[in-house]
Amino acid sequence: MLGGLLLAAIVLYAGGDELFTGSLLMTLVTFAIALLGSFQFVTLAIVLAGVATVTHIGIRIFLSVSQGTGLSGVMFLWLIIPGLTVLGAALYTGGQKKLQTENALLRRQVEELVMIDPLTNLYNLRSMFMDMQTQVSFAERNNQHISLMVIKMKYHDELKRVLKKSQYEQVLIKVSKYVVSTVRLEDRVYAIDDVGSLAIILTTDKAGCKSVVERLNHKLEDPDAFTDISSHPIRVEVKIGYLEYDKKQFKRDAKEFLARVEEECDFDD
Predict the structure, then answer these.
(1) How confident is the model at residue 180 (pLDDT cuts 50, 70, 90)?
(2) Which of 51, 135, 141, 194 lies 20 to 30 Å from 153, alpha-carbon distance?
(3) What is the CATH number of the domain that holds 243?
């Protein structure tokens, strides 16, 4: 592509005064072709190159015949310069598309491998779905209770507006730490979205879940719970939903189980 522009500039310089106007127009057209190609309008660049080449050569032949003058060899370079420019633009565009595809694939592969939420350092939703199958199997073999709890921030949009980004992130981290400190070591806490929602796989029944809710609310309602984040008082409220796993109802479908628990959570106003 750059080679075509360079060759066009050389032809413009070497063509002399007689061919200057036509060469200048073709140089401008070649620049337009390169610009279109760089923005991935390759088909339009091809059409423009074809029309410009045929028109220019046709006009030069007509003038040569009508004036009885010979055809300059430099003029015939315009038969290949637009085509070379289009070819260069097509190769450049193809390379860019390939690079973008490879980057998107790499980004998707990395996302599939990431199991940790970067803000809270808790395991993420993908990890929760994987662990749920294992935990359910273990509970069934040992005839144990297993429940899923979801905790969502109330008014998170309002908190985002009134707090700095760093302060809002500190709130999310604090909440996650309070949750982790509320449950037992064998219970697993997961960050399931980017607005602070958490999920817990609990090895207990609904009565045990209710006890967890009471302890967590007590911690969050403490007036000093978030005093080190801002000079102004911060009140954080959460919605909590939970269900005990029922094999007949959920049939090992972790996504369905989570969806039902989130419905319970949304009803907790």
Answers:
(1) very high
(2) 135
(3) 3.30.70.270
Q: Same domain, yes or no, for 107 and 219? A: no
Contact between 251 and 224 under an 8 Å Cβ cutoff? The reply is no
pLDDT by residue (tens digit) across 80-128? 777 677 777 777 777 777 777 767 666 665 555 678 888 999 999 888 9
Whole-number Å distance between alpha carbons of 230 and 58: 76
- In which domain, by residue range, is 69 found? 2-112
Residue 97 belongs to a domain = yes
In a domain, 42, yes or no: yes
Alpha helices (runs of H) in the chain, residue ranges in sequence order: 2-14, 20-38, 42-67, 81-113, 125-141, 156-162, 165-182, 206-220, 247-250, 254-266
Q: Which of 191, 170, 171 is nearest to 180 (CA)?
A: 191
List the structure tokens of 77.
């370079």
Residue 53 lies in a domain: yes
Token pair belonging to 149: 């709890």
Do 86 and 39 lie in one domain? The reply is yes
Give CA–CA dist 175/172, Å, rounded. Answer: 5
Q: What is the pLDDT of residue 67?
A: 64
Query: In angstroms, rounded to a whole number, what is the distance separating the alpha carbons of residues 78 and 23?
Result: 8
